[in-house]
Write a structure and sequence with these properties.
- By secondary structure, the chain is α/β, with parallel strands linked by helices.
- It folds into 2 domains: 245 residues, 3-Layer(aba) Sandwich (Rossmann fold), CATH 3.40.50; 84 residues, Alpha-Beta Plaits (2-Layer Sandwich), CATH 3.30.70.
- It has a 6-stranded mixed beta sheet, with helices on both faces. Strands 2-1-4-5 form a 4-stranded antiparallel beta sheet, covered by helices on one side. Strands 12-13-11-14 form a 4-stranded antiparallel beta sheet.
- It is elongated, with a radius of gyration of 25 Å.
- Helices cover 37% and strands 29% of the residues.
Length: 339
């Protein structure tokens, strides 16, 4: 893959009466062509500012920002306007024109760009068919559901055939089922049209559902970046651990841990599960040493076609034999002793 977006020591500072506010603070970040890249952070982390820098809705204060081979920092407003035709954007609140039909909303950027009527109509029909709304072409936004409105927003963003699609909290106003429908459509955009998709969100479950890689922002800086699998299974930052703990509940804590301790007197360990872990091989031989085991907590899921999760086990038997089994488990996976 080659990079399509590169942040090189990029900062964005806003002036205010109370003093300068740094929203993006010396960020280095590369987004590869053809991937779905997520940017996640809590409110005020700088993620929305980051995405608005990509299409020049906000101008970089310092550093270089290269988008598809061009440094947008050095572009004039007229050059940026042309550049934005290669960068589609969808929003949380849809931003549709209430006085225009579905077809009229999708056609609007093409009309502004000077496309002739026949070509414009053909492109609108093609896009509405792609997003599953061809039969709603003559409806108005107030006749649509939230999910349908966002599909119109996606079709409009794709109208001019952009290389990049920016989705800024694009599912925050939708219910969970509709959110999944929209995320499937974004995957389709990426897979079938080859569009690089940048998703801005505060929900790690969305990252888990759609992204290839993720950057976690904290106070305007990149706290960590990696594949979604790496981030979920081995977060490298405090804020990463905090996010992951909100969606993965495979390790006992608090009341669950106290309950386990009351009910089980043996040695309690938590084993990390990933593809290739030979946990079963070790446990199947534990009985030969007089060690028995019981699964007392945990869960295993699938992410990016790979298994991950953890199991908390009670091991009972002679102390020396239990030590041997724990040592063997450490040889095949990560083991955490539960106090």
């Amino acid at each position: 893959m080659s990079s399509i977006i590169e942040f090189r020591d990029v900062s964005k500072v806003f002036a205010s009466r109370a003093g300068d506010v740094t929203a993006v603070d010396h960020i280095d970040l590369t987004i590869e062509e053809g991937e779905i890249f997520a940017v996640i952070g809590y409110s005020g982390a700088g993620k929305s500012t980051l995405v608005r820098l990509i299409n020049g809705l906000e101008r970089v204060t310092s550093g270089e920002l290269v988008v598809d081979g061009q440094d947008v920092v050095r572009m004039s407003e007229a050059q940026l306007e042309r550049k934005r035709r290669d960068i589609g954007m969808i929003f949380q609140q849809f931003n549709l024109f209430g006085s225009r039909t579905v077809a009229g909303n999708v056609a609007f950027p093409l009309k502004v760009a000077g496309w002739p009527r026949a070509r414009r109509d053909a492109r609108v029909a093609e896009l509405l068919d792609f997003v599953g709304l061809l039969d709603r072409a003559h409806a108005y936004p107030d006749q649509l559901s939230g999910g349908q409105k966002q599909r119109v927003g996606i079709a409009r963003a794709l109208a001019a055939g952009p290389k990049i699609l920016l989705a800024d909290e694009s599912t925050s106003a939708l219910d969970p089922e509709t959110t999944q429908d929209v995320l499937r459509l974004l995957k389709k955009v990426n897979r079938e049209l080859g569009v690089t998709v940048v998703v801005i969100t505060h929900e790690l479950e969305i990252v888990r559902s759609i992204a290839d890689r993720v950057a976690i922002l904290e106070q305007g800086r990149v706290a960590e970046v990696g594949t979604v699998f790496e981030t979920f299974t081995n977060p490298q930052s405090g804020v990463g651990n905090k996010f992951v703990s909100t969606v993965i509940h495979d390790r006992p804590s608090g009341d669950d841990l106290a309950r386990i301790r009351r009910a089980h007197s043996g040695r309690i360990v938590t084993a990390t599960i990933q593809d290739g872990s030979r946990l079963g091989t070790v446990l199947s031989g534990a009985g030969d040493r007089g060690v028995s085991f019981e699964i007392v907590y945990g869960g295993i899921g699938t992410l990016q076609a790979r298994s991950f999760g953890s199991l908390t086990l009670e091991l009972t038997g002679p102390e020396a034999s239990v030590d041997e089994v724990v040592a063997e488990l450490r040889g095949v996976t990560d083991i955490e002793e539960v106090a």
